[in-house]
Structure formats: structure tokens, C-alpha cells
Design goal:
eight-stranded antiparallel sheet; Jelly Rolls; mainly beta; 3 helices; about 40% strand
Amino acid sequence: MRRGLSRHNNRSSGSVVAAFTPLSLFADGSQGAWYDDSNMSTLFQDSAGTTPAVLESPVGLQLDLSKNGVGSNGPQRYNLLSYTEQFSNVYWNKSGTSAGTPTVTTPSGTITLTPLTESAGANSRVGAFSANLLLAGNYTAQIVLKNKSGARFQRIIISSATGSFAYITVDLVNGVITQAAANAGTVTGATGNLVALGSGFYQVTLSAVLSSSQNYLVVCSSDVATPPAGTDFGFVPYTGDGTSGFYVGGADIRQTSQVALTPIYQPITSSWAATIAGNHRSQATSANRPLLSARYNLLLGTAALATQSITTVATSYTIYFTGSGTVTLSGTFIGVFTAGTNTFTATAGSLTATVAGSVLTADIRPTNQTVTLPAYQAVVNSTTYDTVGFPQYIRYNGSNQFLSTASIDFTATAQMSVFAGVRKLGVVTSVLVELSTAYSLNSGSFAILPSATASSEYGFYLNGTAVVSYVPSGFLPPITNTLTALLNIAGVSKATAVIPYVNNVLSQSGGTGTTAGTGNFGNYALYFGMRLGGVAPFNGQEYQMIIVGKTLTAAQITSTETYTNSKTKAY
């Protein structure tokens, strides 16, 4: 049964309902996540979020759109420090000093400072320094300071190695620079400044060109106004009194070319993503990151085609081109084609297209990717191609690529609504999305498995305290589908506990179990593209993923299915 035709009055397949956005599903505070693989502002090559993703780049971080937090702390990570206001955190190595609780705020109320108090007795170092960071290059550090007690002087240092650093020394009691910015060793180009923020708060800025890839930001005290440069990362040894100290916070160090980019000060806790509302997904290991793409045409240099080889799977393909020449195919299919649109069925392996004469605007792709997409995709090379009308996707390689979230607390609900746009390429059991490390072992979990037990299947699994599932078949890869799973642990029967749709068609067939048992969903991480531990890797493409911890209305379901298909072009 097709949902739109049975209950909701002539829904137009593939069109977006006016004014609908999946964000509306979370307006009541419902737990969940929304990953839009077409939204470039949410995609980054690295898990830290310092490098925005581009087509054919890896995806190390994708921001969740469900909490409307994207953009609230800058479009990407500029500040390379962590715990920028929490100097009591172990990220900041303290020596000859103790850190209190961050309580003092700047006059603007936007930055909280941590008190640092020097230890009594002889100290070779009195201050704190960050964990190792930065690459060689031109960097600018800024930090907010306020005198707490005593009359010490404070020195800010960007240190690249013992004996190589830039530094500036200030007097917070009188609000002056006592030692102008200077550099030692291989560090060059030191400049600095001191700006009063009011009420005894000061912002110190220090820039320098670093030649080493091992660097630290140091903030320390001195008992003299113009201490020697020193060799120990710029620290100044002296005898502490056990009471003198200062407040510190608002630490930011970034490439000097990014100094004017907003936010000018970027607060960071454990990570940049952690400062942005949402259940973001990431991959810290570069080798395990999936790929961002919008490529469909398998050929290269398609404006005027030259002889080349491509890799095919066992399926039907469509070849399209213009011009007066011919294309002779050999390898996984043998045949000769002239201009126009033709189909052929290839086996798996290498297909060579030998060009004779003028072959223009050429395109070869699986036939089922020509029905809802433009007939021709211009491709210059592997990273340069036309994207208009071609949905963007995250590509999992079926080997070792996956994304995951931190634990998400779904313990307040027994209902879950899941929507996904997907292209299945692999023929072995794989995980598209799974709540917990294994649905079968963890109560309060679910999973959607492409090629569940056979290549033509999709598996929809729910585990309250018992596993119940539907495993519809008839979806042999390569195939593009929208998937909907309406899950209810409290459902009194299998048919009410798991309600799956494939391409908006009710698909309650196959599977096991009678009910999902009792209870609510758990507090688990979500895994995408593979089960934790390298099990069941997904070979295919994901276009959209929406997960909402509640039951939706019929209108919301219809709108979300339609929106998902508009990003997938499955039908």
C-alpha cells in the first residue's frame, strides 16, 4: 500500500511540501537527529571541523540540524585550543600553580575566567600551557586576563620548542605592557598588543611565525617586569608566595589570516562540535571516513569523449551521447553504439569504451539512475563535474568506513520514527543505521540493515526486551530507495511494533518475532555505515537521515517521506 495514495489525498511523489522542514519535527524538544547530506555547511573533512568538506573529500564530521545549532559558533572551527575558559581542565598543564573554578566574567558577560594561584616556594614554572597544537605558519593568540591578588607580571608565550618562542609581558595592575612582543630561536615576526576591556580585564594579543609543528600556548607569571627570554618554553622561575595570582580565560589561537573572521573569539570545550547544539556524528580515524560525492556518470572528459575503461557491476546500464562517432564496448559487455540513448546489461568487471570519431556529451550509468535524474552529467575529471539536478550523498565503501554519535538519551520514549534515503550497492549483510553496538544484544535499540540476510532484502529490526522484525525482499542492488521505519516498543503486535515503508510502500513481510517486549529506547550511540568493531560494513550511498524519538502524525510522516525523496530521487 502506497501511503500517499491511500490516506493522504494525491500526494505528489518527489515534490517538497510547501514550507515543510524536518526541523519542525523537533520543535517540541524531541530527541533525535537530522543529517542532510546536501547541506555543505554541516560537512567537514576532519572530525575537529577545521576544514569544510568538498565533493570527493572524506567526511570526518557532520553536524546535526535537529537542534538548530548550526552556525551558532561560527561556520567552522578557527580556534585550535580546547577548554578555552576551563583552565582547571587537564588539557591545560599546570606547574607551580593551582586552578580554581571558573566564576569571574568579563564586563560583557561573554567570557568566564579561571583563577590561577601560584604555589609557595621555589618554582621553575608558574603558569599553565596547552596541549600540543598547531602546524608551522603564522598564528595569532588572544587571551583575557585580570589580576586576582599580588602584583606579579603575566607573560603570554607561543612556544614552538625549548628555546624557540614568541612572548609578551604585561602588568595587569597598571594595565601596561612591560616587555614588548619579541621572539627567540627559530620563531620570527612577533607582534603584540594589550587592550583594556574595563573593570580590570585586559585582552592580550600575540602573533608570530612558527617554524615547528610542535607548539603550545603558555600563560605564566613573573616576579619581574622584564624577565629574560629564558629557554624553558619562556617560563620564568621564581619563589612563589602562595597567594598571588590572576584570572585567565577566553583563550583563542588561530591562523593569522583568520583573525578577522567571526566569531573573533570562538569558545571551545572538548571540541568545536560540542559547543553546537545537536547530536553530531563523526569519525576520528581518517582511514575510516566515508566520501562526499554527487557523481553518477562513470565516464571522464565527457564533453568530447576519449577511449577509457570503467568498472561495472552486474546490472543494466544506459549509454547516452551525441555526435557522429561510435562507441565500441568490450569487456563486461560487447557492442557498438551510435548517438542516442541505449541500454545494455553488463557483468561485473572492467568495461572499455573505445571511441571512434566525434562522441560528445557522453554518459554511462546504471539504468535505474536515469529515471529521475538528468540524462547527461558533464564530468571533467574525478573531482570536477556538474551537480545541478544530481543529489549529493555520503558514500560508504563496504569495508571500513562509518560515522557515529556520542550516546543519545532516548530513555524517555518507546517510539521512534526513522527516515532515510539510500542507494544499496553491496550484496552482503550490512548496517545502514543502528542504535547501540548491536540491536540483538541491547534492549531499547533498533537497526536498519540493507541486504539483511539476502542481497534483495531490507531488514527493519526493533528490540525492546525482545527482537521483532520485518525483512521485505525484492530490492536487488544496485537500487535507490527511501526507507521509513515507524517503531513502537509498546506495540501489541508485530504489525504495530514495526511499520516499514520502502519507496513509500508498506513493506511488512518476512522477519521474526511477535512483539518487541517492554520498556523504552536506551541511551546509546548511533552508528552509520557499519556496526562498531568493523562488523557489517555498508556498501552504498546515503542521501538523508532523519531520526525522531516519537510517533509522528500522518501529515508529518507524509511530509517527511516526501522531503526525503526530494533529496534522494528514488521515485
